[in-house]
Amino acid sequence: MACLLRAATWRLLPWRGYCSRGTKGELNESFVEALKAVVGSPHVSTAAAVREQHGHDESMHRCQPPDAVVWPQNVEQVSKLAALCYDQGVPIIPFGTGTGLEGGVCAVQGGVCVNLTHMDRILQLNLEDFSVLVEPGVTRKTLNTHLRDSGLWFPVDPGADASLCGMVATGASGTNAVRYGTMRDNVLNLEVVLPGGRLLHTAGPGRHFRKSAAGYNLTGLFVGSEGTLGLITAATLRLHPVPEATVAATCAFPNIRAAVDSTVHILQAAVPVARIEFLDDAMIDACNRYSKLNCCVAPTLFLEFHGSEQALAEQVQRTEEITRHNGGSNFSWAEEAEERSRLWAARHNAWYAALALRPGCKGYSTDVCVPISRLPEILVQTKENLKASGLTGVIAGHVGDGNFHCILVADQEDPEELLRITTFSKQLARHALALHGTCTGEHGIGLGKRQLLQEEVGAVGIETMRQLKATLDPRGLMNPGKVL
């Protein structure tokens, strides 16, 4: 009976062929030819290796490859691809750099992966308006290299050199969020190809104003939508002046509470810190080994300040007073760009430093965010729970905005260990929810946090999201199986 039901379901999708066992097959040859007619034969692949490459991200979610991968060259081709797939009932999975951490690119129902990296132009730079228009293949490092001599930069920094439109889709943030905000605060307009091929400019074509009271916030609707509502084909982003001077610092603490209390006190004292990152002792030890640092193996804050020389001197003095009051020691300042870059490269490589603790194993990162006042409580408890779990793991986080991660490293072929990771991560997420926080500060919901999203926003919140999804994507073909 189960096989009959499965076959009946898949008969609704004329674009597929299935073997007698009811397993997924390949796209019909005629459909593949139709894809090639849109983007050209060199820009379509059904090769197993290419499909597998596009069926996973950096997460522990198992690879689920699409049936084909296409590389459109412009928005017109994206629109035609969306219309073709939607007409034939083919799922559409947008793909950027594949650096996500929640399985957002897994093709759980097969379909066509639309790799947008060939659309990599910086279309318009408005220096006087502090904005830039980019295609989805432009990464944050590429943009900032382009801006190098302009006096402006784009500060949202998740660590990986992710595509900017992918960062929009996942609602990314990172180390600079405490001062400059997340992607939600830095997106002015989006060009989106809707399911079926229609083109939407969320704030109106060509507009790049700083604020508006005109109707619903369509731009905000697509930030963090994880490819479930449309394909983002261009983004207008807010830029910021490059600071006159920059100073970075590290400071070690006798325990986690002292480090996190310092974070809270620095923020309460209105010190305009640009970055404030926490690494526990295990994370510092891993970074020392991986990035050849010699930091004291203890709970540590990484800080950075932006501003004028005079302002920085005041910020440094006030911060040092606060950290010393909380037992901070080994306070070390880095003013030279090379030394600052080395420190932050080590912080950005924390993921790979953690993986190096168990070569050949996979990593999983939790991603909770709580109100600042509850941060000491949850971090201390999380460290105790991590020790009790017996898992290999470290803690790092953007504590300036209440967001932190446990990076857990496990043997993906060990079901018992994977079950312990699932249990630990759900326990942590529910602890964050109990403290009026969120189950994800920046990674998104993807495949694994759909139940937690329901617990966070409630039945009415989920039903409202489902209604929005059904209105924009009535056939449920945009990145199916994610978020809802």
From TrEMBL:
Natural source organism: Catagonus wagneri
Gene, per the UniProt record: LDHD
Cited SUPFAM superfamilies: FAD-binding/transporter-associated domain-like, FAD-linked oxidases, C-terminal domain
EC number: 1.1.2.4
Family classification: Belongs to the FAD-binding oxidoreductase/transferase type 4 family.
InterPro entries in UniProt: FAD-bd_oxidored_4_C, FAD-bd_PCMH, FAD-bd_PCMH-like_sf, FAD-bd_PCMH_sub2, FAD-linked_Oxase-like_C, Oxid_FAD_bind_N, Vanillyl_alc_oxidase_C-sub2
Catalyzed reaction equations: (R)-lactate + 2 Fe(III)-[cytochrome c] = 2 Fe(II)-[cytochrome c] + pyruvate + 2 H(+)
Subunit and partners: Interacts with CSRP3.
An example Gene Ontology CC term for this record: mitochondrion
Name listed for the protein in its UniProt record: Probable D-lactate dehydrogenase, mitochondrial
One record GO biological process: lactate catabolic process
Domain of life: Eukaryota
Keyword tags: Acetylation, FAD, Flavoprotein, Mitochondrion, Oxidoreductase, Transit peptide
Domain called FAD-binding PCMH-type: residue spans: 62-242
